[in-house]
Amino acid sequence: MKVMVVGSGGREYSIGLALKRDPNVSELFFAPGNGATPWLGQNVTCKDYEELAAFAKEKGIDLTVVGPETALVEGIVDIFRAKGLVIFGASQAAARLEGSKIFMKNFLSSYGIPTAKYIETHDANKANAFIETLALPIVVKADGLCAGKGVIIAQSKEEAKEAVADMLSGKSFGDAGHGVVVEEFLDGYELSLFVVCDGIDYKILPAAQDHKRLKDNDIGPNTGGMGAYAPTPLIDDVLYKKVEERVIKPTLAGMQKEGTPFEGVLFIGLMIVKNEPIVLEYNVRFGDPECEILMPLLKTPASELFYKAATQNLKNLEIEFYDKYAIAVVMASENYPYGTSKPSEIIIDKSAHEALEHTHISYAGVSLEEGTLYATGGRVLLCVGVGDTIKEARERAYLLCGQVHFAGKQFRSDIAYQALQYDK
């Protein structure tokens, strides 16, 4: 099977790693890929999705897997399907669940799916009036795609109103902020749950927990994610069942009723409040860094999962996972997330290779120049550890962190801290 992965980050590198070890995969392509993906397959550069679909047709690509949300929101799946190509991902219409927070919140409300009390508006006066009714803190979200950064948790009503004004004016997030969602703050703990869907049937993946804040103890600015682990002990069979009955089933039924069946990855951002699941947001793709820990846990060949989901055949798949834990620690550049950093050569100690059976690196913001790999992005790479316990996986991941070097590297030292109290 010839497979192409669309995207260039650590998420796509991790999907590529899973496909590289897949016995069904004969050739692997990345569009556009990053500086390290040529170690796994061939990088492809095309000017637009039409040209990329033509390339897939010409090369006889059997399956295309879409990583980033932007490509889905822009309609890559529709373009490929119009040419008779098999592609794993959400249609442009279904991708509105992530592409518009206003659409998503109204969808949740329409189908009785639990979510925070909110208002969606393009009118600052209406937003400000609603802000006056809420207790602190207050959550303000830009409507469109903001690479995971379009959420402000305001500690005062004045700050919330200022966030609304900045978003609606285009000052904060450009066109993505011309509509806003203001909602109550929920006090609980967050979980990430991923569901692979084919429009009707679905497979639930192990729940994960992401660490969004830049620094230890969850302080500092929000980022795209500084680390994650799975499976998390913060969810049990009872809570899984609540999510399945109250969230997953009504979401898929609602999308069918809307005439836009959901196919691809449904990423459910949950807040658990007094053991009750409340939806914070939907995304329509694997999370990053959650994907980097889910792929090593997947025992079923990745190509089978993606292909059967893309061809409405998940009912005939028995999905299996390794009885292990995985932890990923993001290594970021010096000035992340405030600005760009100077390129820096990545050096990996030779001793790192001794532990590769249980650890690996997923590369993200990197470039390759004359055989040397450089850190050139914000989130540069992820050190992934796998073990029989959370503690073992964590120790392996951090051991690898100590063996990877580039100027100005920064990373959190407390990934999975909430789960350690459950670890035996």
Count of folded domains:
4
What is the first-to-last residue Cα distance? 41 Å
CATH class of the largest domain: Alpha Beta
Strand order of the largest sheet: 3-2-1-4-5
CATH architecture of the largest domain: 2-Layer Sandwich
Family: Belongs to the GARS family.
EC number: 6.3.4.13
Protein name: Phosphoribosylamine--glycine ligase
Domain ATP-grasp: 105-311
Can you walk me through this structure?
Helix content is 28%, strand content 28%. The chain is an alpha+beta fold and 424 residues long. The longest helix has 21 residues, at 237-257.
Walk me through the topology.
Layout: E1 2-7, H1 10-20, E2 27-32, E3 42-43, H2 49-59, E4 63-66, H3 69-73, H4 76-82, E5 87-88, H5 96-99, H6 101-110, E6 118-121, H7 124-131, E7 138-142, E8 151-154, H8 157-169, E9 180-184, E10 189-198, E11 202-204, E12 209-210, E13 213-215, E14 219-222, E15 227-230, H9 237-257, E16 263-273, E17 276-283, H10 290-297, H11 302-310, E18 325-332, E19 344-345, E20 347-348, E21 359-363, E22 366-369, E23 372-375, E24 379-387, H12 390-401, E25 404-405
Parallel strand pairs: 1-2, 1-4, 2-3, 4-5
Antiparallel strand pairs: 6-9, 7-8, 7-9, 10-11, 10-16, 12-15, 13-14, 15-18, 16-17, 18-24, 19-23, 20-25, 21-24, 22-23
Helix pairs in contact: 1-10, 7-8
Please tag this protein with its features:
424 residues; alpha+beta; Rossmann fold; Dna Ligase, domain 1; D-amino Acid Aminotransferase, Chain A, domain 1; five-stranded parallel β-sheet; five-stranded antiparallel β-sheet; 12 helices; 28% strand; ATP-binding; EC 6.3.4.13
